[in-house]
Amino acid sequence: MMRLIKNGLMFGNLIEVSAPGMVARYNRAMKHLTGKETALSEFHIDISGYSPEIGHELNDDWYLNPEGCNQQFILLSAEQKTAPLLSTKFSTSHAILKSWIEDNESELFALTAREAVTGELLNSVFEVSSPADLFNIRRILIEADTIGDHVANANKLQEKIDTFLTRRDAWWDDVLIAQMIELGKDTGNIMRHPVSLKDGTYTQGNFYTAHFGGLYVFRDTQTSTVIARDPSVDLSGLPVDQVLSFDDRSGIARFLHDMRLAELIVASRERNVAQIIRQKIDFITIATAAEHGEDLTGLHRQSIRNVERKYISKMPEAYHGLMDIWRWATMGGAFPNLTPAHDAYFYALRSSRHGDKDLVNMLLSDLSPLDFRQLFICNKDAFYARYNTFSESKKDYVAQFLAEEYVVDKAGAREALFGPEPSMQDRPSAGRGQGDYLSPDTIALVEPSGRQAKKPRRRDDEDDSRSPWGIRYDDDDDRDERRHPRRKSRPKKREKDTRSERQKAKDRAEKNRQDLEDIRWLRDNWRG
User: Measured between alpha carbons, how far is 14 from 244 in angstroms, rounded to an integer?
Assistant: First the structure.
């Protein structure tokens, strides 16, 4: 793991805590939440305040997440919003906590200037003992305050101020005034510097949980579904329409198809996009070579071709399926024909644009584990577990590749692999996405039933100049109000100015003279 840590691929973007004052604040907050303290003089923390060094010291990586269902947090600074979340059982926890910090950033800046802020992501359960308990978690409420109860005391002070200003005899109430003074010593001037935190209530929609071997819960889709990584887990009696496991590849493919959750990476003969498939082929080549004891030290793009030739007879089915797609997209090869039973099927997909894009890409990375890059981006826990099984030379290659090809431009790499992020207008909940999962002119990844999608019939008079709405691109459709009843006709073009330069100068001078007279008239009348 040291390779990953040195290259910023593990425990990256953590916040350093080394100042004695900050360590003391953390210890007070930690004792307030857990009853424990650390003897370390410096350590690093994630967005929730969890420290892997302290977890190792206490032999408890879940000291801020008891039972894995109510995430606690310690905030020493609002800058923690840039850090990852390491100790979590739910895929939604990081986004919820980051959103809350951003909503309260100015308030947290003022509060953390004097003391650490502690809190908890509360839901309606305190233990997940059965899969059915997951469906009792619908809303997440964030409760937070300093260990000195500055927020609670500020609320009390505000109530007393309201009483003082509204009750007629409050001026003679010495007890009320004394209480206000004592609370003010702790909170400061809350009229000038309000001490309050915005309401933190969030909906737990579709999510992944590491409980019970790993479950993908899609309960906000039109067909509510649970997908289990471990087929042996008993999921009977859950309040969903269907329960699937990773063994049921056709069922998962049908669900993604019907809910419009995924799309093809290569939807046309496009060389640039096909390079993503080419890289996936390289990753499978490297995995195959490593399994057969190949030394991958110093491996580069050209030498991968040599390794590919050497082990071509030992390549898995996923390799051959992706090669069919790549040949079709770049070299005019035959139309590929892959069913969900084919190992390459899920390698050829990515999430479509909707609100659960990250969750679907996480599911697809789980179903295509030989693509170590997508696994690292979408499911780090699964990546770290798989990384431990790699040979030493493969560990070197993977760490170097991710550091040089991904870390240097994370945003660019993610957009190239998964497409642009959905805008607010393109963020319907999963299962209500826009567009077709399989258009007739794409690669013949056949429908999950095994029936190949039919190509559309083409009329002889049809050409490629029509838009998806059936209107020719070269039509001046702005002039046709029958096609666009809401669109107004274009404004008339401005007539060409035929005046001479001398006449233009005279007109400007006359306009300036009139403007000056108007100003004088306004000045004289204003004084009058």
Answer: 36
Q: What pLDDT, on a 0 to 100 scale, did the predictor assign at position 429?
A: 45
Asked whether the beta carbons of 124 and 137 are under 8 A apart, the reply is: yes
Query: Do 352 and 263 contact (CB within 8 A), yes or no?
Result: yes
Asked whether 403 and 339 are in contact (CB, 8 A), the reply is: no
Could you give the 3-state DSSP secondary structure of residue 311?
A: coil
Q: Residue 249, Cβ neighbours under 10 Å: how many?
A: 19
Tokens standing for 519?
């100003």
d(CA 279, CA 287): 12
**Helix, coil or strand: residue 69:** coil
Q: State the DSSP H helix or E strand holding residue 54, giving kind and residue range, or none if neither.
A: helix 52-58
SS3 256: helix
How confident is the model at residue 40, as a pLDDT?
Answer: 94
Query: Which pLDDT does position 504 carry in this prediction?
Result: 77
pLDDT of residue 414: 87
How many other C-beta atoms are found inside a 10 Å radius of the C-beta of residue 503?
A: 11
d(CA 189, CA 439): 63
pLDDT given at position 312: 92
Grouped pLDDT means (10 residues each) for the chain, 528 residues: 85 91 93 92 94 94 87 92 91 92 86 85 82 88 75 69 76 75 66 66 89 93 94 91 94 93 82 85 93 85 87 93 90 83 93 92 95 93 92 90 87 85 51 33 46 43 37 40 44 62 76 72 58
- Cα angle 244, 245, 251 (rounded to 5 degrees) comes to 50
Task: Report which DSSP code applies to 128.
Answer: -
Residue corresponding to tokens 């990844």? 445
Q: Are 114 and 154 in contact (CB under 8 A)?
A: no
The Cα 305–Cα 328 span in angstroms is 19
Cβ atoms of 1 and 10 closer than 8 Å: yes
Kindly tell me the burial class for residue 187, based on how many C-beta atoms sit within 10 Å of its own C-beta (0-12, 13-18, 19 or more): buried
DSSP secondary structure string, 318-347?
HHHHHHHHHHHHHH--PPPEE-TTSTTTGG
- Which helix H or strand E contains 208, and what residues bound it? strand 207-209
Which of 361, 348, 352, 290 lies closest to 319 in space, CA to CA? Answer: 348
**Among 135, 329, 316, which residue's Cα sits nearest to residue 239?**
135
pTM over 0.70: yes
DSSP notation for 262-306: EEES--SS-HHHHHHHHHHHHHHHHHHHHHTT---TT--HHHHHH
Q: Give 350-389 as a DSSP string.
A: EE-SSTTHHHHHHHHHHH-TT-HHHHHHH-HHHHHHHHTT
The torsion angles phi and psi of 136, rounded to 5 degrees, stand at: -85, -10
Distances (CA, A) of 218 to 85, 89, 248: 22, 16, 16
